[in-house]
Amino acid sequence: VLIGDKSNMKKPGYYSSGEFARMAHVTLRTIRYYDKQNILKPSYVTDAGARFYTDEDFARLQQILLLKYLGFSLDDIREMTIADSDYHFMLNSLNIQLKLVQDRIEQMQLVEKAIQDTADVIQAEHTIDWSQMLNLIHLTGMEKSLKNQYQNASNISARINLHSLYSQNEQGWFPWIYEQLKIRPGMRILEIGCGDGTLWKDRRSVLPEDIHIVLSDISEGMLRDARRAIGAEDKRFEFHVFDCHRIPYEEGVFDLVIANHVLFYCEDIPKVAREVKRVLKGDGRFICSTYGCRHMMEVSRLVQGFDERIVLSADKLYERFGRENGGNILRQDFCKVEWMSYQDSLVVPDPEPLISYVLSCHGNQSQYILDHYNEFRSYVKKKTDGGFHITKDAGIFICEK
Q: Taking Cα atoms as reference points, which of 246, 238, 230, 225 lies closest to residue 190?
């Protein structure tokens, strides 16, 4: 028996509702409310109805309280948190929350300046600048975008974590990509869809000093993460928000353009390819990565074994631009196109990172998993005992004009 049903005796590491509330400096009513709202359920309930919580529950409560402080609704919080017992994922969660707090600080600094500027104009001219006031209203509403930025960061981190922890190729995807770039002094480089700058942040020390790299993304939040990771003081890097369907540079500017797992998200892939060709120099190269139809196929089989209604992605992205059809799409604009495979697979011995990966996918999985989380975790744990093998079918197209 874990906890005596007919007494107040309990196992060390388990806290009563009252103790749990005092530890977190919240009211017992708050703890009961989160329980009722299915945001934070107790780890153990006795037959008599007494509720007990653990240190893992306390870590989850920390997430909830921070997200609530940052202005998220309880519905948002229910979607954005999930119990993680592994320290890798608690650390990952804290890093994402740190980014969220940094975003809020930057936004509040903008709001502070806008309020001061607006007040100064009113004091000096005794009139109200309504365009300035509208700008102020826009700034104070910016936190609405934080939810999407948080979820994007969470999803990308879950994917990178799974691969970095359990890939069998010791070199790693990003070091392998970097090696294929064949960077030399004096190059001008453009990366479209750079995300949080992972390709560059650990390789700044080996980059030539006389190089210019433009990191671009359609997401201001992602580019902000990249600028933080690399450092705005590194003058070799320029950060630019734009849509890669319309690259705002003249013809023949870049020696190298990179698109790492980007093209299959583009609405008009041939148009992006034409834009890339336009901004490349005559001897420039375009390196774009994607994956084939066998990539991570065991994960789809895994979740459908739990519930056949689950579809991890409404779109099969490799059908839009993948190993099988990407060459034909690119040869419309590039005279030389070669495919290079990245030799790798995953062997996953633990359930949590695989579950985090599953929940990061752009499908319908949450509606079938979150209400049955403990059951799903037990199912995945059985599958990962002894190591769960996952096929990786990814690589790059190397294109020349």
A: 238
